[in-house]
Write a structure and sequence with these properties.
- Strands 7, 8, 9, 10, 11, 12, 15, 16, 17 and 18 form a ten-stranded mixed beta sheet that branches. The protein has a four-stranded antiparallel beta sheet with strand order 1-6-3-4, with no helix packed on it.
- The chain is an alpha+beta fold.
- It folds into three domains: about 60 residues, Structural Genomics Hypothetical 15.5 Kd Protein In mrcA-pckA Intergenic Region, Chain A; about 100 residues, Pseudouridine synthase, CATH 3.30.2350.10; about 110 residues, Pseudouridine synthase, CATH 3.30.2350.
- The protein is about 20% helix and about 30% strand.
Amino acid sequence: MRFEFVAHRPGKVKSLLKEHDISKGLLAKIKFKGGHIWVNEREQNAIHIVDVGDVIAVDIPDELPYEKLEPIDMPLAVVAEDDHFLVLNKPSGVASIPSVNHSNTMANFVKGYFIKQKYPNLQVHIVTRLDRDTSGLMLFAKHGYAHARLDKQLQKKVIEKRYFALVSGKGNLDKHGEIIAPIARDEDSIITRRVHHSGKYAHTTYEVVASYGDVHLVDIRLHTGRTHQIRVHFAHIGFPLLGDDLYGGRMDLGIERQALHCHTLSFFDPFIEERVTHELGLTNDFENVIIALENDNR
């Protein structure tokens, strides 16, 4: 895959490419695994000196797949796709990556999809992941360079994810809220988390979209990405998610997984130099709960 850049100042090729997120590691891959560097259509190396206006082109070699990741042919709900990124609607009940307990995961499905589509790059690059029982938008990079460029955005926290959740608790839930509370591992579990002063900074904001008695549909924005952050924060303020038995959520309203759905994903696409936003509506299980609650409240 070829990428072109125009030099805006004199300097070494590698210095100018670094400004476009081409790392030393990627330069080594270009050098030793079949890639090329061109300056004004003549092949050069990374220490070649360029002048203002010179056109630098890099050919990045194709990526071989990770052999340990088994490809699985499974239909995917593709929301958007181009040469660099793949956005999927992940169903609940499917893990993002393989583990001891999970082998039929989104990563396996995406590898199967890449092979079926006969794409030249077969490594799976997950940019944003979701818990197994959380549904909604997931972002994949289709090559390592695209992943590297979005990693910078992840570090700067400019990739925005918003979630719908159904929560329930006693008392009033403010129409707009901000939860800033550190999250740490639970002392008695390797899975659960808790709010504790020893934990890492965590920041969540929300808006109540609709209320059905003591159940509320909330629109949530994450400002940090701690494990189980939304689930822990809402349990902390006394409004755990429906279906979330791990954190005390109600299990009597017909939803058997934590009622959490990533409905909006927004990031700056560095290849078209525009911010792109993808959105989804509510899932069927969310809608079924809401319809039942509306009928009960009539």
